[in-house]
Each structure stands twice: as C-alpha cells, then as structure tokens.
Amino acid sequence: MASEKYRKILEDMQEGYYEIDLEGTFTYVNESLCRIAEENIDKIIGVNFTSYTTKATAKKVFRAFNEAFRTGIPKRIEYEIILPSGKRKIIDNSASLLKDDGGNIVGFCGLVTDITKRRRLEDQIRENRRRYEALFENANELIITTDEYGYIKRMNKKVEEISGYTRKEMIGQSILIIAHPEDRSVYIEFWKEILAGNTPRFELRATAKGGETEYLLASGSVVKKGGKIVEIQYNAQVISDLKEAQHTIVDLSNYLNSIIESSPNVIICLDRSGKIRMANPVTTRIFRKSPSSIIDREISYLSSDMKEFESVIREVQERRVPQFFHGRTLDGVSHQIFDISIYPLIDPVHGGVVFTAVDITEKKNMEIQLIHAQKMETIGELAGGVAHDFNNILTGISGNLAMLRYTTDRAKQLAYLDTLEKIGDRARDLIRQMLVFTKRHEGRPENISICQVIEEVIDMASKSIPKNICLSIGNMDRDATVYMDHTHLTQVMLNLIVNAKDAIGNKQRGRISIDTKIISVDKGLKRQYLLGTPGRYVKIEVSDNGCGMSDEILPKIFDPFFSTKQKGTAKGTGLGLSITYNIVKNADGGIQVQSEEGKGSRFTILLPLSKTRNKTLRAGDGPAGGSEQNKARILLVDDEDMLRDIGKEMLEYLGHEVETAHDGYSCLEKLKNIKPGFDLVILDMIMPGLDGYHTLQEMLKRGITTKVIISSGFSFEHERQEMFSNPLIVAKLNKPFNMNELSSVLVDVLN
Predict the structure, then answer these.
(1) Beta carbons within 10 angstroms of residue 355's beta carbon
(2) Which tens digits make up the pLDDT trace of 525-547?
(3) What is the pLDDT of residues 593-617, one digit of tens each?
(4) More confident residue, 578 or 367
(5) What residues contact residue 612 under an 8 Å CB cut-off, 6+ apart?
(6) What domains lie within the chain, and their CATH numbers?
(7) Selection from 500, 521, 522 nearest residue 511 by Cα
(8) Using CB atoms within 10 A of its CB, is residue 402 exposed (0-12), middle (13-18) or buried (19+)?
(9) CA-atom Rg of the chain in angstroms
C-alpha cells in the first residue's frame, strides 16, 4: 500500500488510483478516481467494485483480476461503469497485484483512466470512416482511384451504375476503358495535369459498356506518401453532388457548434498568439462580456484572475502538454470555483489551445454543508445539557444579585461580585465553545494539544450526558500534539462520545472512557490502519460498555447514512461516524473499531504527531540546527557533485560531521578505511557503476552494520521489492527534499 511519501504524488495524479482487497472492496482511492466516479471518497471506501458494474461486466473484470493473481502479470482491461446517478462511463483499468512488506498478496492496485471521451472519439472516427465508406460507395458522383499510371484500384457503385461495368471487369484496367473514343486524348491531358500537381476540372465524355455516352464534370488529385504518388483520385459529377457535399460539411460544422454552444462549461479557443478566437455563451455570461468584445483579445482581458493563465497558455502551446488546475476562481467577483483544463489544439495549421473550466462550486459547498450539518446534529444532541448549564448559570446570577441587594457587609459584597465574575467567565466559555464548534469553514490545520481538545469536549459533552453514564478521562499524554483543524478534531471526539452515549442508553452504570498515548507505529500497524508511513503517532481510544455491535454490523459502521439506532428512537443522519472516518483519513490518520455485542465498543484513532509532518519552509524559517537530533557522523553517497555539495552543507548546518562518496565503490572503501566509523549512510539508489542496491548487498556481505537511509529521485515503487527486506535500511528519503524533510527523517532515525 502507498506510503505517506507517495500520497501527494498519488493525489496529484490525473489518473485515478485505487487499492482493493482480495474481496474487491476499495481500501484506498485518490482524488482523481473520486472525480471519475463522481463520488466523495467516503462513499467509495468500503464499497465493492461490483457496485459500479453490471453482473456480466463484474465477471469480466473478475476474470482479469484472477488472471493477474494467477500469473503475476498486470492486466489491462476496458469496461463500462455505472455511477450511482445512473451515468455511464468507460474506463481503462490497469490492475496489478498489491503486496504487503512480506511479499504476500493482499489485493490489487491500479490506475484508472476515464476513456469515455476517447472511446466516443474512436467511435466517432469509426463512424466517420463508416460514413466515408458509405459516402464513397453511395455518393451520387463517380469516384475512381488509380495508380500513377492510370490503372484502376477502386471504384464506387455509381461508376458501376453509369458505366455498366462490374468492379471485376474494371479493377486493374486503364481508366481509358470508359473514355469516349473521341476523348482519349482529353483523358490523357487530364491525367498529365493531375500528375503535374494541379487539380484540374475537365468536361469529359464516358462511354458505358452498352455504348451509352455520359457527360461528366471531372476533377482529380494525387495522394502522396513520403513524397511518392500512391494513388490518383478522380471525381466526376453527373448532377449537383458537389453542392450536396458542401451542405454536409455545413451541417457537420453546425452540429459541432451546437455542442459547444450547449456546453455548461467554459470553453475558450485561443490561437497561436494567445488571442481568443472563440468563446461559448457560458464564458460571456460568467465574465459579463459581449461575444464581439472578447474576440482577438488576450485572456487577461476577461478578468484579473485570468492573467495568471497567460504564461501557462504559452507553455502549453510550446510544449504541447496539457495543464490542470483545481479549485480556482475566474472572475474575481463571484464565489464560483472551477476545475480548469488547458489543452493544446491538435491542429497543425491553426494551433493554439482550448481553455475549459468546470464549475465545482456546488460540489464544494455540498461537502462543507455536509460536515456542518452533522456538526449541528451533534450540537442538537448536546442542547439539553447546554440549556441545563445555562439555567444553573442564571440561577447563580440571580441568587448572587439578590444577596448583593440585601447585604451591607462590604466583604460579602466583594465575595458576591467575585462569584458573579466567575459565573460570567463560565458563561462566556460555554458560548465560545458552541460558537467555535458551529463555525462553518473548510478547516485550517494547526498544531493543537490533544489533551486540551479532549478536556474541552468533555466539558461540553458532560452537560448532556445522563446521570447513569460516567464520562471519564483515563491515561492522558500531555505531550501529544497533532496538526489538524481544531473544530474537526472536536467534531471527531464529540461524534464518538455521542455515539457511545446512544449505545449505552438507559443502562445503569454506563461508562465512557477516553485514553491517549504516544506510540511508535511499525509496518504491521501501518498496514492494519492503512497509514501512509510508520513513525510516532497519537493513539486515542474511546470505549464504552454499551450495547456493542454484531459482526454483521461492524463492516458497515463507517458507511454514510448507516445507523445502528434502534427503531423508535430519534434517528440521526447516519453521517457521524462516516464524517469522523473522513476527517481522520484527511489528517493522514487511521481509525478502527472493536466491538462485542452486549458488552460495548472501543474506537481507536491513530494520528501522526505534529513533528512527523513535513511542512514547507516559509521565507525566513529554518530548522533549529541539530537541536532536535543527536549529532552523528554521516556518509553521504551520491554521483551528482551538486547534490553531494548541498547535501553536505545541509547536514553540517544540522550539526553533523559529514564525509561524501561519489559512487558505491568509494562508499565501501570509506566504510572500510575511515576511522572512527560512521553512524549513518545516506545512499543514492541510482548511480553508475555500483548502484545503491548492489552497494547494500556488498555491505551485508562484508559485515558492515551501519544504518542506511536510501534516497532516490524515482518513486520507491520502481525499486526492487526485495531491497526493502535489507535490515540496514532504516528510512527512505525522496528527492527533492528540503531542510525540514531531511531534519525530520534524521530525528526519527537518530533519536
């Protein structure tokens, strides 16, 4: 399964990427696959791939997966999927075996490309070819092709009708077979004009097999390949077939224009110079410009937001490589959000690019509204407790004000005022908690204390917890911090507490307990929780002694709109645990549940510690030297001089003692001869001569036990799988890496 280091690559891919288990259930998908499926990730994960196909298609796909499983060879298959909306798409699925770190097959992974447009284009091409053949065959004009010497290669049905000759009689014969005896010299002149590269139009007479004479208006042209004439085509009109062909062209052009005009997306065509040549009505409506005013203008004329795309358009024009942008505004005024694609036009004459923008505003708003709606559902659950707390506050205010009115003792008056101030603070804190939690936004991650959030949630939730339930905090690791949105984590904890409360119901001596602990996640836990990478994580456990869940219910617990609440009770949306799962996964974490019917449940969440996150350095920021890590003697091995030099400087800035080597041979030599030895080797995998893979093998053969961080500019998916079983490897470092990324890896390895 994809590691943390590859997640961004997978998420940025235009192709859809998926992982399924051996049962065919999706365990991971990237955003591109979500766009193809037109589904949110939480609606795909846990769903079997057969849900998106017919039974017949599912059997076909299963056979492909089975063949890949049996042979170990990736299998590529094209088939139709059916979206929940009923919409149909054609995809190209390249499926490969998915193995765990032990080499065991655990499922399948693959790349999915939406080829609906391509297939439609292919179908269109085939249809055009069919139409061409039909037009050739059924055209109301004579069409003959010959070689350069005038011997007939092909002819259409009209030639048979007019000449009276069959194809068998004419194929291989000179075109003069139909020439009127008096016009043979005219035919020859006509033929010479064509060979000269001209496109002549001659009035000719043709003699049919039965002796009848037909007058033809003939034209001709040569077809060349590699500068050599491969055939000559003759067209001869008997009636107004030329006009009919012109009408066909106009109809096709009008059909194409109607498609563009009817599109709900922004479509702008620009020429080689970056000037607008065409824009559909949606474009003019969004930018509030008249159609005539934007022609021959640069795209920046439309709005200030569009100016940034001018350089991109030039790059696409020059490199002929499309560019894509997600979640952009266009006009600088409205709040519409678009997915943008810029493609080069496949036109050797006119060139240029086509700019398209798909409005995703509603989709984004729906995502935000869904989370907000579920938050409000949780607030509803807490409303009774909040009202009770406010009543207590009001009672305290009223009581203390009454005593202030009737006492003249200065000391008691000050005491009552002090109490009122504390009550006011309590009320203000309660309101702040509710307002913060109900705030609608997409999430702003920050470093937050797990304990602080849990204590706030306990304070908020305890107001609505019945007296039969004890809500308690068990073990708390005060050093636990995570990088995520505060309200999102609050929502996760409240969802789990409310879920536990509902599971306990009226049971006497109900118990909800929350525990936190910092743990080290190994490869086993990484696979179990579908985490991106091993490392240090915060473990949060929310357990209860409620009704529990059966084995049949457990696999569905994180499905959207699924609820375990008993009939007759107030039923929620069924989104709480689904949104909880989604929030945790978006924070690069994992969540699982253990439950026994009649005894209770335990939800376990793993979230990466803040310092394990690789954050981009801002201007003026930098790691604090080597303060976060032990000093070490490091051997940096890389065949690129520049990378060795800058790598050495970065490592020395972090406080380490550094030696360098330019290839595997010099690495082994320095490991053998330089004393004292090295604490760590940072080893480039792709080098001339002795590469990283064989260097690692030689180190084992020679009994060298120095720890190794492997580094590569390629995805580690391209490396030999057996390499990762090497006991010397302690970490992986993808190129390019910044100072924070390097420092973070060294902290994990050296501490």
Answers:
(1) 25
(2) 888 888 877 888 999 999 999 88
(3) 999 888 899 999 999 998 644 333 3
(4) 578
(5) 535, 536, 537, 744, 748
(6) 4-114 (3.30.450.20), 141-238 (3.30.450.20), 247-359 (3.30.450.20), 365-612 (3.30.565.10), 633-750 (3.40.50.2300)
(7) 500
(8) exposed
(9) 37
